[in-house]
Structure formats: structure tokens, C-alpha cells
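Note to self: the last two entries modelled the partners one at a time, which told us nothing about the interface. This time every component goes in together.
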Amino acid sequence: MTAPEGPEALVRRGTVITAIALLGVAGVYVLAWGYTPIEARQGVAQKIFYLHVPSAWSALVAFSLVGIVSALYLWLNDPRLDRFAAASAEVGLAFSAVMLTTGPIWAKPIWGTWWTWDARLTLTLFLFFLFIGYLALRAALQDPGERARFSAVIGILGLLLVPFIHLSVYLFRTLHPQPVVLKPSRPSLPPEMLRTLLISGAVFLVLYVGLVTIRYGLAAAEEAGERGDAA
Amino acid sequence: MPEWLRLALVIAGKDLRAELRSRTAILSAVVFAALVLVVFNFARDPTALAAVDLAPSVLWVTFALAAMLALNRAFTIERENAALDGLLLAPVPREALFAGKLLANLAFVGTVEAVTLPLFVLFFNVDLGAALPGIIGVTALATVGFVTVGTIFSAMAVRTRFAELMLPVLLLPFMVPPLIGAVQVTARLLAGRPLSEMLGWLRLLALYDLVFVILCALVFTAVVDE
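The predicted structure of the combined assembly is written out below.
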């Protein structure tokens, strides 16, 4: 990002990375059907796991980076940080939309309900709303400096809001499957499933990088266009 | 009295004086809260659900909606005639300015809540009894939290094209933790449960207040200064 590249080159590079990642997603699904065993109790419904969990991870990475980069922006005042935060929020919103649609599709046959007010579901739903608000605020502001400062404030406050929402909804008993990878003891997945999941996680991170690069390049091009009009 | 507090009280006093002279916003907010209570009464099935089971949520949804209306007003009055520019030119630290606006909003929202609570008792036939001091306490605790965040958001929302719409969209996710906590504590207070069952929620509310009061005071300068 520090290289003095033109926006067009960034968009091109982002498109290449995204294309590679999408091929990777196709590859993950070949693995999911051909390589991983069928889960004993959930049957084929469990296959959505290789899409749902990695998009949740990527959404979480995206939203955490928005918060951290927002704090850095208020400190350093570098417009590139603001551009990155906006790109990351948009891509994070797309990933959480994937998470929030694949979740109910899985939940209907397994839990017998599309939606439940479980702690984790509620938290991600509010994250989703929070970042819709973030992007709506950006769209409603004209002045680039003001837009950058205001959205940085929302980004920071949002990052601090997450633990509070989590704590307050956690007291309702949780129905969501407990972590199977990131937990103190060893992962409780068969090795084929675990490998496929980790590959999928990596693929989704590449997808995140690709999409953010495109959005970043487009934002840079837009800003250059605005400056060109003013001159 | 520390200098920042004196300045904050001067700013809050200015807001409250302006409000007391016109009284339009406070009256509208109170009438609005009363109307929400009336609507709630017709939105429930009295044979299916006892009033006391529904009471905590009715009370807090009413408080939240009325507070939202009141917060919209806080910086709208500063935008007219560019009054905010005048305030910013005055030699006032930004933290004191934020504290002043926060105190005025708290007084405003607190007044609306103080009028709404007796109406709520009247309309829903709830016996507060010994729960009254507890309810006042938890109301104060929760209100400080969301009014703090609301103050900073209303300063941002007035700069946008759809301020009245932007504020709820931004603020409601932030209202969730204080509202959940307040509803839980209110329900336990009305049911006469022991304090130990509420302590976790009260700690959460207090922590929320502490974190967001400090954070909002720190980032307020990014909202008003270019």
C-alpha cells in the first residue's frame, strides 16, 4: 500500500487476487464434497460450515481492522488509513451478509428454526447493523475530512461496543455450536474437516485482501477524480 | 470547583435556559412518551400477558424512544445561526464543552423520564412500592451510558442530510447493552428479587458508563474540530 502505484494498478491487482481467491473457494467446495467425511448427525447440511465459519472469521478480521485503523487515523491523520477503514468495513459487511445468510440455511434443518436470539447470533447481527450505520454515515457526509473523522469515531466506539454486547447477550444461554478450533484444548474435528476448514479460512482471507484492494483502489480513484474536478 | 466543571455548568445552564424559555422540545418529548405508553397499552393482549410481565420492556422502550427524540435536539439548536462556531471560538476546553452538552442532555432526558415514570405507574397499574429507589438508581445508571454516546452521535448526525434518521441508526446498536441491563434489573426489582441477582448487570452498566464517558470525552475533539 505504500508503493506509489496508481489506483488503476491497485484495482487490477485486487481483481487478480480476488479471482485467485474465488478459484480457491471453488477448490474448497471440491474438497468439502470429495475429501471430508459426511458428519454423522448433521449429514450434508454440515458442508455449509466451510463457507459459514471462514466468512465469519474474515468479517471479524475486517471489523477489528476498521476499529484499529480508525484509532490510528485520529492519531496520524493519514487519508490512506481512512480509505482502508472504509474499504474494510464494506468488505466486512459483505462477509457478514454471507455469514448471516448461510447461518439460517444451516439452522433450519439442524436447530429447527431460522433464527434464535443466541448470544453469538445477536452479536454478529448488531455488528452488521453497526457497520451499516458506519457506511450510511459516510454516505451522508460531503466533506472528506469530516467524513474521515466521524467514521473514525464510530469505528473506535464500535470496537469497544463489541465486548459489551457480547457480555450482555451472553447471559442468555447460548445455543450456537461451541468453538471447535480456537479453544484451549485440541481441535475436536476429524483431520480432513479441520484441514479443509483451515484452507477455506486462508482462501477467505485472500478474498478479503483482494476485495479490499479493489475497494481501496476505487476510493483512491474517486478522490483523485474529486480533486481533478475542483482544480 | 474545577475550572472545566464550572465551564461545563455554564454551557449546560445556557442550554437549559434556552429550553425553559421556549419549552417546545421538553413538552413535545413528554407528550411523545405519554403517547408511546398509550400505544403500548393497545398493542398488548391483556388476557394473555399480565401488565407486570410486560412492564419493564414497555418502560425502557418508552425511555429509549423519548431519549432519542431529546438527543436530536441537542446539536440542532447549535447548528441554527452557526451557534456551534461561537462556542468553539470561546476559550473552552473541548472536554468541558462535551461535559456541558452531556449534562444538559442528562437533565433533559432525566426530566422526560421523571414525568414518564408516574404515567407508566398510572397506565399500567404497576405497584412500584419498595422498588422505587432501585428503579431510580438503575435508570440513572443506564441513562448516563446511552446519553453519553448519544451526545457525541447527535453532534455528528446534525452535520448529515438526514439527521433525524441518522441518529437512531447509529445509536440503537449502542443502546442495546444498557437497555438489556436496565430491563433485566427492572424486572428483578419489580419481582422483589435480592440484590445479588442484579449485581452482574449493575456492574456491566457501571462499566459501560465509565468506558464510554472517558472515551467520548477524548474523541469529542475529533467531532467538532477540523
